């Protein structure tokens, strides 16, 4: 039967083409199901991508957290290593490496591989300790400077969601530098009783602090730990364990601060004793050079003319008379006593030079007596080594030698001594007013100032340690981070 499409009745009868209202609805439903299936696939794929990004964000966040924690323990290791700087005479010594490793252990991190001086390390956890720093090369201003300890820690951390992309772990590194800053004081009197520091004549001016460790409280005019009755005592810090009798002008500096705690360590140069004794020529090996140039001597030397001396052991000491012209070549001079002779004595009107020299006054007796005070031609110039065990130390008296020392000079008489004076169990009378880079005194008792022909000689102290490879030998007892 042929439907007449012009017939309105036929036009309203779609079933005549085999299509019914129900079959059209089914087609629409199938179309909707297809669209819904495609949407579900897209949503599923989107969820996978979203979860991937969330997982990566979690891994990145975790690694950032681990990086922060790794930096903290690296800082701790560098500080611990730097704390041992005063006890290490060689690069990255065992005390330094042990301290750094212990710092990691105390922070709950164990099992590291230790390497030093930028060596190659293997393993998932490596601690590299460098003294001096070397990891950054010449771009680091502290490269090659033994005053700094550098620690680099590398550690591998597992990933979680990143494993989907084949990344099972990530290595993170952290770096830190630390140092022991120079102590702010340069004069230490170690005696724990009686008057340990006394300004006897003239004035005292210092760019660094003064520490008096005597516990004495004193009574009336006697027995105070620190005594200054006339003149000017100008220092940025005056610390006294006991009490002070202070009638001097401060000259713009600080007044004595009584009742301070005993410094720790009490002797700020005690850590150097072993290294200096080991570096000096042996006291038991007397040199045998009979004449100039000397490389040691077995018996007292008295020099009245021109002479050159080289480092060595001088058993019987050295005496330089008026009019003598003496050159000390760079090195360390061990002075031992023999009979009634020993030490080093420089008379007035002598001419003495020595650059990069240190005198180890072993003793067991014999003093250091430098008094080149004369209106006649006179010049004494001695400068301490700038590196090595005696860096910054001009005179080191063995703790077993208790003989008092006298070091007196003035710019008027061309006396220029640059270095430290270490007399841990002996008293020292000290008066030098010449402008030098730095002065350091650590002694049992210290008398400052001197009077020559009724002329008072002042004492001036300076603190420019830039010429010393390791800075001032007197270190702070607290390490600080430098990078």
Element layout with pairings:
Layout: H1 8-11, H2 21-82, H3 94-106, E1 113-116, E2 125-130, E3 148-158, E4 169-179, E5 185-189, E6 197-199, E7 204-206, E8 209-212, E9 217-219, E10 222-224, E11 226-228, E12 233-234, E13 238-240, E14 244-246, E15 257-258, H4 273-279, E16 297-298, E17 301-303, E18 306-309, E19 312-315, E20 318-320, E21 325-328, E22 331-336, E23 344-346, E24 351-355, E25 357-363, E26 368-370, E27 379-383, E28 393-397, E29 405-408, E30 415-431, E31 439-448, E32 450-452, E33 455-457, E34 459-461, E35 480-481
Parallel strand pairs: 1-2, 5-8, 5-31, 6-11, 6-31, 7-12, 7-34, 8-13, 11-14, 13-15, 16-19, 17-20, 18-21, 19-22, 20-23, 21-24, 22-25, 23-26, 24-27, 25-28, 26-29, 27-30, 28-30, 29-30, 30-31
Antiparallel strand pairs: 2-3, 3-4, 4-35, 9-10, 32-33
Walk me through this protein's architecture.
The chain has 483 residues and is an alpha/beta fold. It is 18% helix and 34% strand. The protein contains 4 helices and 35 strands. The protein has a 23-stranded parallel sheet that branches. A hairpin with a 2-residue loop joins strand 9 and strand 10. The model has no long low-confidence stretch (mean pLDDT 87).
Summarize, please.
The protein is 18% helix and 34% strand.
Pick out its properties.
483 residues, alpha/beta, 2 domains, 23-stranded parallel β-sheet, 4 helices
Rg result: 39 Å
Structural class: alpha/beta
**Shape call:** elongated
Overall strand count: 35
The proportion of strand residues reads: 25-35%
Count of discrete alpha- or pi-helical segments spanning 4 or more residues: 4
Report helical residue fraction.
10-25%
Largest sheet features: 23 strands, parallel
End-to-end Cα distance: 99 Å
Q: How many domains, in number, for the residues?
A: 2
What is the mean pLDDT? 87
Low-confidence blocks of residues: none
């Amino acid at each position: 039967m042929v439907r007449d499409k012009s017939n309105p009745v036929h036009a309203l009868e779609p079933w005549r083409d085999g299509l019914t209202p129900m079959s059209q609805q089914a087609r629409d439903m199938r179309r909707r199901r297809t669209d819904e299936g495609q949407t579900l696939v897209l949503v599923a794929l989107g969820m996978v991508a979203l979860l991937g990004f969330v997982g990566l964000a979690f891994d990145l966040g975790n690694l950032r957290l681990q990086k922060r924690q790794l930096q903290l323990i690296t800082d701790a290791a560098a500080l611990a290593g730097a704390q041992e700087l005063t006890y290490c005479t060689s690069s990255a010594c065992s005390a330094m490496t042990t301290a750094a490793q212990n710092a990691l252990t105390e922070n709950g991190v164990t099992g590291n591989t230790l390497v030093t001086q930028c060596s190659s390390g293997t393993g998932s956890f490596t601690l590299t300790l460098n003294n001096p720093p070397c990891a950054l090369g010449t771009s680091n201003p502290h490269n090659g400077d033994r005053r700094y300890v550098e620690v680099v820690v590398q550690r591998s951390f597992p990933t979680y969601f990143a494993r989907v992309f084949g990344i099972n772990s990530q290595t993170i590194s952290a770096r830190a530098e630390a140092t022991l800053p120079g102590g702010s004081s340069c004069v230490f009197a170690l005696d724990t009783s009686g008057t340990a520091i006394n300004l006897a004549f003239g004035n005292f001016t210092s760019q660094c602090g003064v520490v008096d460790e005597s516990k004495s409280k004193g009574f009336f005019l006697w027995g105070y730990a620190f005594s200054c009755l006339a003149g000017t005592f100008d220092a940025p810090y005056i610390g006294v364990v006991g009490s002070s009798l202070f009638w001097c002008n401060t000259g713009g500096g600080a007044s004595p601060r009584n009742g301070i705690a005993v410094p720790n360590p009490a002797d700020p140069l005690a850590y150097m004793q072993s290294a200096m004794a080991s570096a000096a020529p042996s006291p038991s090996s007397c040199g045998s050079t009979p004449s100039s140039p000397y490389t040691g001597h077995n018996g007292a030397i008295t020099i009245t003319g021109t002479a050159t001396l080289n480092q060595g052991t001088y058993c019987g000491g050295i005496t330089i008379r008026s009019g003598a012209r003496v050159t000390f070549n760079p090195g360390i001079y061990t002075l031992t006593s023999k009979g009634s002779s020993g030490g080093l004595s420089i008379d007035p009107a002598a001419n003495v030079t020595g650059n990069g020299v240190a005198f180890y006054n072993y003793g067991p007796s014999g003093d250091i007596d430098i008094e080149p005070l004369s209106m006649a031609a006179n010049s004494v110039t001695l400068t301490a080594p700038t590196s090595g065990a005696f860096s910054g130390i001009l005179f080191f008296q063995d703790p077993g030698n208790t003989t008092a020392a006298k070091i007196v000079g003035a710019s008027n008489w061309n006396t220029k001594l640059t270095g430290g004076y270490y007399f841990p169990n002996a008293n020292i009378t000290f008066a030098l007013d010449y402008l030098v880079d730095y002065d350091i005194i650590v002694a049992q008792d210290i008398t400052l100032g001197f009077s020559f022909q009724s002329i008072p000689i002042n004492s001036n102290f300076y603190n420019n340690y830039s010429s010393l490879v390791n800075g001032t030998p007197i270190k702070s007892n607290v390490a600080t981070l430098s990078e």
